[in-house]
Amino acid sequence: MNNKNIFFKKKTKVTLSEIKKLLFINDNDKTIINDIKDLRSAKKNDISFYNSHRYLDLLKNCKASFIITNKKYKNKVQNYSKAIVVENVLKSVALVTSLFYPDSLNDTIDLNLAAPKIKSFNKVFFGKNTLIGENVKIGSKSMIGHNTIIESNVVIGSNCIIGNNVLIKNSIIGNNVRILDSAIIGKKGFGFFPNNNKNYRYPHIGIVVIEDNVEIGCNNTIDRGSLSNTVIGKNTFIDNQVHIAHNVNIGKNCIITAQVGFAGSSSVGEKVLIGGQAGISGHLKVGNNVQIGGGSGVIKNIPDNSKVMGYPAKDIRKFIKENK
Predict the structure, then answer these.
(1) What are phi and psi of 65, to 5 degrees?
(2) What values do phi and psi take at 125, rounded to 5?
(3) Rounded Cα–Cα distance for residues 63 and 43 (Å)
(4) How far apart are the C-alpha atoms of 110 and 224, rounded to whole Å?
């Protein structure tokens, strides 16, 4: 996928001195910084951030010229890049992201919506009261339901069925995807910092990527990413009333049943089965071929080929033995 952000306009010619001034650091370095990226996708002349040892492997391979961090990780970061030391890493990243993407905190209504011009779409069926933004692309033989809104720059593949009362924004959707009624895809994530009497909102410039042959159930909410993207892998089926937070990455061929919740930046492998009303805490990794029982609370990483249940989720044999 093209690295250019098609949903948020980026400010160009941002200098390192501008960034440091924003972070209350005096420096007259006029080096041009291209963008702010996560550790995985950052390139030369980008800036990124590091605030947890769990991302050490990503740090080792990161190509960013500068990395925002704190005193605790300064020496570690300097082994791989130039460190910019701040007191609060996430708040600093939010400020820098807002500098690059001034409109990123806005999640307002797309005012460029209009009834679709049928001639602009090849063999696409539109229901009544459908509204389409500017530069929307929809593949042939797709169907868009009644009262559905597809905001500007969204891409939808071929042979897709988008249900009634669906809202899609900041998203790229593959082929043969089914999104059922009243789903909301691509809204901003729930990220903020408490600051005295006011909460400071964290900007979200990532998108939602839904790969081929995915089914999204009714009343699902899938948040777009903050710096990285929220991704749903090929052939994954998601039941009704599931919430998927920002930066979540769900692998291929997963089955996720009703009312499951994923906190931000959690990662799920391939061929994972998750029972109803389970909860996955943030920044965790669930391996491949994992089964998670209904109502479970996952609060630590789950290795490949595990079967877990309970709160906190534990090996299912241990759970059954303890609850005879």
Answers:
(1) -75, -30
(2) -100, 130
(3) 5
(4) 16
Looking at residue 199, its amino acid is N
What are 177-210's pLDDT values in tens digits? 999 999 999 999 888 877 777 888 889 999 999 9
Q: What is the pLDDT of residue 3?
A: 56
The answer to whether 267 touches 248, Cβ cutoff 8 Å, is yes
**19 is written with which tokens?**
């960034």
CATH code matching the domain that covers 118-322, chosen among 3.90.76.10, 2.60.40.1120, 3.40.50.1240, 2.160.10.10: 2.160.10.10
Same fold, 14-100 and 118-322: no
Short-list 158, 182, 183, 153, CA closest to 170: 153
Of 264, 285, 257, 258, give the one whose Cα is nearest residue 222.
Answer: 264
Task: Please identify which of the residues 146, 243, 246, 283 carries the catalytic annotation.
Answer: 246
Give tens-digit pLDDT for 55-108.
999 999 999 999 999 999 999 999 999 999 999 998 999 999 999 998 887 777
Given a cut of 90, whether residue 246 has pLDDT beyond it is yes
- Token digits for 309? 């249940």
**Number of other CB atoms surrounding residue 60 within 10 Å:** 11
CA 165 – CA 157 distance, rounded (Å): 19
105 neighbors 88 (Cβ within 8 angstroms): no
Q: Is 206 exposed, middle or buried (0-12, 13-18, 19+ CB in 10 A)?
A: buried
Q: How crowded is the C-beta side of 188, counted as CA atoms within 13 Å?
A: 16
Contact present, 151 and 134 (Cβ < 8 Å): no
The residues near 63 (Cβ < 8 Å, ≥ 6 apart) are 42, 43, 44, 46
Catalytic, 146? Answer no
| Secondary element (H or E) of residue 223 | strand 221-223
> What is the spatial distance between Cα 39 and Cα 33, in angstroms, rounded to a whole number?
15
Topology at the third CATH level for domain 14-100: 3.40.1390
Residue-range domain boundaries for the chain: 14-100, 118-322
